[in-house]
Every structure is written in C-alpha cells, then in structure tokens.
Write the structure tokens for this entry.
Amino acid sequence: MTCLLNQLSNLQSILVTGGAGYIGSVLTRNLVKLGFKVRVLDSLIFGKKGISDLISNNSIELVIDDIRNQKAVLESIKDIDCIIHLAAIVGDPLCSKIPQAARQINYLGTKNLIDVCRSNGVRRFIFASTCSNYGSSSTTVNEKTIVKPFSLYAETKIASEQYVLDSKNENFEPCVLRFATAFGISPRMRFDLLLQEFIRDAVIDKKISVYGPDYWRPLIHVDDISNACISTIKSPKESISGEIYNVGDNNQNYTKLELAKMIQKYIPETKIVLQESKKDLRNYKVSFDKIVSNLRFKITKTVEDGIQEIVDKIQNNQLDPIDSDFSNLSKLTENVKVY
C-alpha cells in the first residue's frame, strides 16, 4: 500500500516547516507511517516533545532553525520533492503582540521560501492558510468569495496566498489550503483554540463565556487537516497547481453557541454566559464542496468526536488544560525575535 501511494504521487521526499507544532506533529507522524522520507524545519520554540519519538528512532530528519534563515532554508530543501509550509505565527492575538516578527515570518518567510524552492527544483508547494481570511459574511463563502481580512494574521496569510499562487509555472505546483478552525488531540497539544478554550473554561470555571453567540465558525479535526495535506501530495498536478481549497466539512459549520451547548452535554454543570462580541467580529459559514469534488476528501472525525476525546483525557488525568505549555501566547512572545 505504501509503495502504491508513493508511485501515484511521485513525490517521495517531504519537507514540513513547523513540523513539531500542533498540526505538524500529527502530519509528520502520518507521513512517516505512509513511508515518505520526511524532513522537518522547525525553530522548536515550543520544544520537540511532539516529535521526540520520531527523532529518537530516526524516523525523520530534523533541522532546528528559523524559516527566516536563508542558509537553513537552502539546506532544508535539498533533495526535497514537496514542501508543506505550516511554519507561522498563528492567530490574531499572537500576531498583534509581535507584529513585526509576524510579518517577517508569515509573509517574508513564505516569500523567500517560495523563491528558493523555484530556484532549486522543488516541485510542489502546499501552503497552510486559514478560513478566517473570509472575515465576515452573511452568506456561505467559497474559494471564489472576496476575502476580508480583519486582522494582521489574515493580512499576512492573504498576501502570502497571492505570492504562492503567482509563483505557479510548468515546473512548480503551488496549492493553498484554507483550514477551518482546528481542534482535537495532538502530540503538541493546544488549549488556546476555540473549541479547546471552551472545553478548558467548562472544566476549570464551570462556565463558558460566548462572545458573538450567533457567529459562525467551520471546524476540522487536526487528524483531518493532516489527511487533507496528504491528499494534496497524492493528487495529480491538474487538481493541485494554482488551486485554493477550503479544508473542512459542510456539516461542521457551527455557531459559537451551538459549540458551547455541545460541550455542555459532556460537562452538564457548565453555565453558558452570552455576551455581545466586541473583540472578534469574524463570522463565516464555509462551503467545502470543492475539496470534496476535486480531491474526494472526507473528514473522519466530527466536533462531537473531538469534544469526547478531549473531555475523556482530562477526566482520566491524561491532559491538564491549564498547562502553560498548551498555549502559544504564553511562550512565543518571549522567544520570537525580530530579524
């Protein structure tokens, strides 16, 4: 099965930037299981716990460096067929705290990586973007909808998307994946994501404060984000090169209030407090028809699956939702330097 997959794609060697992170540690592990040769470029700001087993048993090659370091990038792409570019300052709050570094890493880092890839024979480039680029809409949005950035994070992603897509040529196959809001268990766990924040607050405070209760969000399990990335590796050039795909499932669009009520089913003592949104105006319900039609992509885990697995681990003392290691915000502001 492994050999067949690799023959279909003809992409054998994969570089995952940010491969030790929340999404990266899941994806990297799955690529190894499928028999790909995997290299990870990561600054290890959050440590290497998420991929420590893969390092110790020599399943992957690790380059510890910053995406902004041109020399490290050149070294990392040697003999690489495909890059999955996850490395970024992720989320609105964090980008606002370190705006200069966010611009450097999210946009200039991506731009430089693209330029180096095109000059050195890398064939396929998969860029991790976000559905938050849509900002706010009263109708269901799709890949043709005009984007409306409400934050520096979205601005850097949209600018990067344009550069990625403009880089397409006969020998270079760029693809943009706009991920829905991630959730679920990862070896490099996070509790500063929407669903996980709600679960944490329900467990610790017995209360979920919901800002903008009627605002929509699409959600996707981190395992299915990994599956989507692998689909783009395996798919033919005609389906990938120059394309944008929303990554998620039509049935996993929920309002914030609906999410809170689902969590309340698993933690019944939770009180839900509704508040008008003052901080976050994003409101978007997303169509995922294109990725289903073109790549035959289907999710394997629902939001309810994710809630149950997280609550079970917390109740079995396998996860501590207030561990500072599970928050990007608590560490990154101290460790990210401006070049």
